[in-house]
Specification:
- By secondary structure, this protein is mostly helical.
- About 75% of the residues lie in helices and about 0% in strands.
- The protein is built from 22 helices and no strands.
- Helix 2 crosses helix 7 and helix 7 runs antiparallel to helix 11.
- The two termini are about 50 Å apart.
């Protein structure tokens, strides 16, 4: 990192976002649904959103998280059918309606007997399904925003959500329950009415392409599960060692952790030499690991340790959301598939973390040595997830589109006759032309490109890419014009270079200009 990069990065973000890095209504709406998550389902037995102020039973947390996973994974697997369904206003309204009604039912789950059980189960299912629709809606919204804008908006939204949680938790139980039920309704109104997510009034900035869903799920899933398990273990150990309820842990330290997360992300974004969420993610992962190693040192300093214990959780959620938005926007991937799989895996990771935390809690009370061991295991899990963050090559491979075997041969096993004819045609193209008065007129640039493409047996799509690239189009511009992914552009250019036996753009231009070189 270099402080000289701050001005350059600020100018770059300003240019990328058109001088308006923040959409306050979008930030506010996203903050409201994240505040609802904090109030209802940060962890098992973490929510006190019942009319009597008693904790919601852990079983309802597990049911709601399971329903959320079903909504997210189901949308990813159905893909276009889910998007078509969401084009209907009634389907979009189902998200905030189910979540709001489900919140009221969960608030009634403290009632005695079967009534409380029925309200709790129905409320858990409806909140899981409804909040999944809202999460996917904000994923679609941020997929169509510049990554620079997402970098500034998402950390702020999570911080505001933490503050809203702290303020709402201070209110009387009935008031806090009513406000909690209104949060997803207002957030959904901003998302679907003001921002027009999935509406025909808001056309996507890029058209999504197909990609390897299994590989994506594996990379994101392992990363999310590792960090989720680490966070669950650390949180459980911290609560047990301090004899502290999770309600007290979250009330104000959550806002402090959100502030630290915001500073980490903004600092990495402004000081980094590369404007990429993956770069920010890697820097923040190291900070998270450092915080985990500090926990045994601050045992007894409850406020400091509470903030440190929550910073890892908050930072990971912020960065995963930013990473999914960036991948979806830059590589032309469906937000429904990316966020369905990605956020679903995060939810699964949190569930596994809760299970791991429960296992750790059985060893309480903890010795200082055992606390240090837990911190070490958590740190190693976080650092291992560092290895599974997407690299550029991974994303290119993920988004490579299959080619038509009839138009070209990828394996290079063309016949010797084909090779000879190709080389002869190429040689003829590059041979000097006669300068006699009867020489044909200089052909247009595109015609020369087509002749070269025929000589080197480029596929139709490779020919399109070559013409645009030779005209000076950037890879990003070629993406926009041909509606293909960044990975596919890179693949086509690599094949073009191989077939033409060139190693740079200038060499490719020399071959094209050789058609009419005198």
């Amino acid at each position: 990192m270099n402080f000289c990069n701050i001005k350059e990065n600020l100018l770059a973000y300003r240019a990328e976002t058109g001088g308006h890095p923040l959409g306050l209504d979008r930030v506010f709406g996203f903050a409201l649904i994240r505040a609802w998550v904090y109030l209802m389902f940060v962890g098992a037995a973490a929510s006190f959103m019942t009319w009597s102020g008693e904790a919601i039973r852990p079983a309802f947390f597990l049911v709601s998280a399971g329903a959320l996973c079903i909504a997210l994974f189901g949308s990813a697997l159905t893909g276009d059918r889910f998007v078509k369904l969401m084009l209907h206003p009634t389907a979009r309204a189902a998200g905030p309606t189910l979540t709001g009604v489900g919140t009221v039912l969960l608030a009634s789950s403290g009632a005695e007997g079967m009534i409380g059980d029925v309200c709790g189960i129905i409320g858990a299912i409806t909140t899981g399904l409804g909040s999944g629709i809202i999460d996917l809606g904000y994923g679609e919204l941020y997929r169509n925003e510049p990554p620079g804008r997402t970098t500034f908006e998402v950390p702020l939204a999570f911080f505001l959500a933490a503050v809203a949680y702290s303020l709402t938790a201070m209110l009387p139980p009935v008031t806090s329950c009513v406000l909690c039920a209104l949060l997803p309704v207002v957030s959904g109104w901003i998302l679907f009415v003001q921002q027009h997510a999935w509406s025909r009034k808001r056309q996507p900035t890029v058209r999504p392409i197909e990609f390897d869903l299994k590989s994506f799920a594996w990379r994101i899933g392992l990363c999310a599960c590792l960090v989720g398990i680490a966070d669950g273990m650390v949180r459980a150990a911290f609560l047990s060692s301090n004899n502290l309820s999770i309600h007290l842990l979250l009330q104000w330290p959550l806002a402090g952790a959100g502030l630290i997360t915001m500073l980490i992300v903004y600092g990495a974004a402004l000081l980094g030499s590369e404007q990429s969420t993956r770069t920010i993610y890697k820097a923040a992962i190291v900070v998270m690991a450092f915080f985990f190693t500090l926990l045994p040192i601050f045992t007894g300093a409850q406020d400091i340790e509470s903030v440190l214990a929550l910073t890892g959780y908050g930072t990971f959620n912020v960065l995963i959301w930013m990473l999914l938005a960036e991948i979806s926007a830059n590589y032309r991937l469906s937000s429904t598939r990316v966020f369905g799989i990605g956020w679903g895996m995060v939810t699964l990771g949190v569930l596994l973390g809760a299970v791991a935390g429960d296992a750790v809690d059985r060893f309480a009370p903890f010795s200082p040595q055992f606390l240090s061991f837990i911190a070490l295991v958590a740190t190693m899990a976080v650092l291992l997830s560092f290895l599974f963050v997407f690299r550029e090559s991974d994303l290119i491979a993920l988004t490579e589109e299959p080619e038509d075997p009839s138009s070209e041969n990828f394996s290079g096993t063309v016949t010797q006759v084909d090779r000879a004819s190709s080389k002869n045609a190429a040689a003829e193209l590059q041979a000097p032309k006669s300068s006699t008065p009867l020489a044909t007129p200089r052909p247009r640039f595109q015609d020369r490109c087509l002749e070269v493409a025929a000589a080197f047996e480029l596929s139709p799509k490779e020919t399109e890419v070559m013409i645009l690239f030779a005209k000076g189009r950037s890879a990003a511009r070629i993406q926009e014009e041909l509606f293909i992914s960044k990975g596919t552009v890179s693949t086509h250019l690599r094949h073009i270079y191989q077939k033409m036996d060139v190693h740079s753009k200038q060499e490719m231009l020399d071959v094209i200009e050789g058609v009419t070189r005198e």
